Amino acid sequence: MTALTLSTAAASGLRADAIVVGVAKGAGSKGGLVVSSGAEAVDKAYDGKLASVLETLGATGAEGEVTKLPAPSGFKAPVVVAVGLGEVPKKDETYGTDALRRAAGTVARALTGVKKAAFALPVEDAGDAGAIAEGALLGAYSFDAYKDQGDAKGAKKKGKDAKAPLAEIAVLGGKPRDKAYKAAVDRAVAVAEEMNRARDLINTPPNDLDPEAFAAVATAAAKEHGIKIQVLDEKALAKGGFGGILGVGVGSEAPPRLVKLSYTHSKAKKHLAFVGKGITYDSGGISLKPAGHNETMKCDMAGAAAVFAAVVAAARLGLEVNVTGWLALAENMPSGSATRPGDVLRMYSGKTVEVLNTDAEGRLVLADAITKASEDKPDAIVDVATLTGAMMMALGSRTFGIMANDDAFRTSVHEIAEEVGEPSWPMPLPADLRKGMDSPTADIANMGERMGGGLVAGLFLQEFVGEGITWAHLDIAGPAFHEGAPFGYTPKGGTGSAVRTLVRLAECTAAGDLG
User: Fold this and answer.
1) What is the per-residue pLDDT across 446-484, written as a single tens digit (0 to 9) for each?
2) Which residues contact 305 (CB under 8 A, 6 or more apart)?
3) Which of 395, 400, 464, 513 could form a disulfide with 508 if both were Cys (CB 3.0 to 4.6 A apart)?
């Protein structure tokens, strides 16, 4: 991981390979470029003409724009990097924390191959320092486990174009001895490292990350961070009657797992349960996906990765709340033993489900895990899943949908997601769509009406939530895996979507900010 420190050093005297400053678009049509706070010393070294120099180089202050120029005489760093922050804040307002987070991430990506960068971005309080730290650490992420692995003798070698991620980050304007600043940066490090761990899991090829391998990763992390873990293998699942998880995994040579991660705190007054869909590869099963839809299906375990990362982050932060994570892990493959359309599964709850489409498998593994999680009587259950293409059709590739059996809780989760910079949108659970899942053979079918398919999936999951338990469903099918060019602190590939929402939800619950 990239190293990170807070520093009160002057930008001119700091030994680094680059000094990062922020610039913005001035208000109005003739506003011009504005150098943001934090860069005063750098601007002074340019005789107060940094903005005009940058404008000459074509800089506009637009969000995500990066401009490099030689550092002024007397600076120990050779390069100044200006990053656009967008519009200048209105009077009595400041740059939002996610704007700082995105800017820091953009620069960290631009400085791949650089050893050390000092970030002289606007810091008004500890929250700003934490946002810059988090964005920079997320932006510096790189997944290269399958590149430059060495020759036949095991000797390490690098490709001619290979560059290491930014190695060290110094956040200027921070106060290393201030408890609030230290806590904000420590939190940023824990959350970013766990979010990057989730990204690693999502990006790992399915031939190396089957349910058993995922469970092994979780076991190692649980041991390291003092988290209690229980892993149910295929025999235990059969004995327990987990028909949904077994029904999805029966077609694969890699058997399914149900993993329970339990983080507890002696002062906890509330208990949250997080449930993650962990389909380590989704072929669609007998209802095989068409060509062009299989290539990224290693990401179908992104919900379980998010839950895993959030539980570990809660443990690292010592949050005063009990958090249980459930990872419903299976590989959905077609074979002679695979579940067929028309088969009926008896779920862990005792309900029977007619499987009309084996590619609607995520809701089956989640249903068993939600039922099991309900037995502990948590104060709330939140499930996270790359569940439906319909949600992507509705909200696009950067926004996840939120459904819940409690409007106030759905609103709280939405506000938390927006606060931490994860775009989301509250979605309904229309009762009239439930009838479409009526089955003449079983208690319920795993498919309903095509229109509103993302909402139908939510209604199916709601059937398995324990009575009286508050529940929310996050469909992260869109933002979980990014196939386009990187932007801000979002890389190509696995993103770690929902990790920060879950962690912040746990923090708010620990603080008593949620009912």
Assistant:
1) 999 999 999 999 999 999 999 999 999 999 999 999 999
2) 197, 198, 199, 201, 202, 276, 278, 494, 496
3) 513
Question: What pairs with residue 275 in β-bridges?
Answer: 326, 383
Please give the sequence-ordered ranges of beta strands (E in DSSP) within 196-312, or none if there are none: 228-232, 257-263, 271-282
Q: Which of 223, 251, 196, 172 is nearest to 13 (CA)?
A: 172
User: Cα–Cα–Cα angle for 301, 359, 444, nearest 5°?
Assistant: 110
Percent over 90 (pLDDT), the chain: 90
Residue 190's Cβ-side half-sphere holds a number of Cα atoms within 13 Å equal to: 19
Please give the average per-residue pLDDT across 45-49, as a whole number: 95
Exposure string for 67-81, b = 16+ CB within 10 A, e = fewer: bebebbeebebebbb
Question: Distance from CA of residue 454 to its chain's centroid?
Answer: 20
Task: Give yes or no for residue 353 having a pLDDT over 50.
Answer: yes
Which active-site residues does the annotation give? 289, 363
Among residues 136, 171, 174, the alpha carbon closest in space to that of 19 is found at 171
Bridge-partner residues for 410, per DSSP? none
What's the CA gap between 172 and 38, in Å, rounded? Answer: 8
Spatial distance between the Cα atoms of 129 and 174, rounded to a whole number of angstroms: 6
CB contact at 8 A, 265 and 321? yes
Q: Which of 252, 466, 282 is nearest to 367 (CA)?
A: 466
| Length, in residues, of the chain | 515
CB distance 307 to 322 below 8 Å: no
pLDDT score of 160: 47
Q: Are strands 352-354 and 344-346 parallel, antiparallel or unpaired?
A: antiparallel
Return the closest-CA partner of residue 345 out of 373, 371, 374.
371
User: What is the C-alpha separation between 210 and 199, in angstroms, rounded?
Assistant: 16
Give the whole-angstrom CA distance, residue 194 versus residue 487. Answer: 20
The residues that bridge with 34 in the sheet, in sequence order, are 24
Residue pLDDT, tens place only, 179-203: 999 999 999 999 999 999 999 999 9
Q: Is the pLDDT of residue 381 over 90?
A: yes
Mean pLDDT across 362-369 = 98
Reported in sequence order, the residue ranges of 153-223 that DSSP labels E, i.e. its strands, are: 168-172
Question: Identity (one letter) of the amino acid at 245?
Answer: I
Q: Which helix (H) or strand (E) holds 246?
A: helix 243-249
Distance CA 148, CA 166 (A): 18
> Residue 192 has what pLDDT?
98
Q: Report residue 167 as tokens.
A: 């190695």
Q: What share of the chain is helix, strand, coil (3-state, %, to 5)?
A: 35, 20, 45
The angle at the Cα of 135, spanning 132 to 136, to the nearest 5 degrees, equals 85
